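For reproducibility, we list the full input for the zinc ion complex.
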Amino acid sequence: MHLEILGTRGEIEESAPWHYRHSGVLVDGRLLLDLGEREYLDLHPKLVAITHLHPDHAFFVTQEGSTDIPLYAPEEYHNQVQVQALPEQLTRDGYVIRPLPTHHSKLVRSAALVVHDDSRTICYTGDIIWLNKEYHGFLKGLDLVITDGSYIRKGGMVRKDPGTGQLYGHTGIPDLIRLFSEFTNRILFVHFGSWFFKDIADAREKIRALGEENGVDAQATRDGEEVVV
Ligand SMILES: [Zn+2]
Ligand SMILES: [Zn+2]
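The corresponding predicted structure, in tokenized form, follows.
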């Protein structure tokens, strides 16, 4: 599997030259995971699977744009674009894509996407607080996890809706490394929050060191980075 990390910037004001574009991971030049920028459509993926309908993962929620490329997300959506709901398992173009429901937002459904081809399995979480234990069985033997770099502090930023008790926000990088180190040796971070832009070299080193403490290879990525799995 050949991956291109198209964008590594979260939904924030800050940016830097290698961390400018919003979420997108291109798999083998033909399967796109998240559509955070309209220009990603110019890469002509055969299929787009979106983790959740926030604008930094699905540009069309707040911007103009249309396409004939099939779009899938955890829930359907129709305006200029037509988004179909992801089935429990989607088999297409040599990939099996399985969305695993995650906790992240009060308003939209979210899912981690487990993508499997003949020989490799990766998981791209999108924004995440947690993934219920009942789904952990689908994470066994992952070759790679790509996940949420919004917060470096343990626990991240998680809030609770006083009415429904529902949690929303993002967990922290230390929590994600602990969770996914059970299932993989390699974790890449995207979707950086403000903390990352204060001192990028130091931020990269913090992620690497947290990985080392947990016996996994953890790295920050940058826009345009190519990854072979
Ligand atoms: Zn986001
Ligand atoms: Zn989000």
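The domain at 2-228 is CATH 3.60.15.10 (Metallo-beta-lactamase; Chain A). The longest strand covers residues 95-103. Both points were considered when choosing residues for closer inspection.
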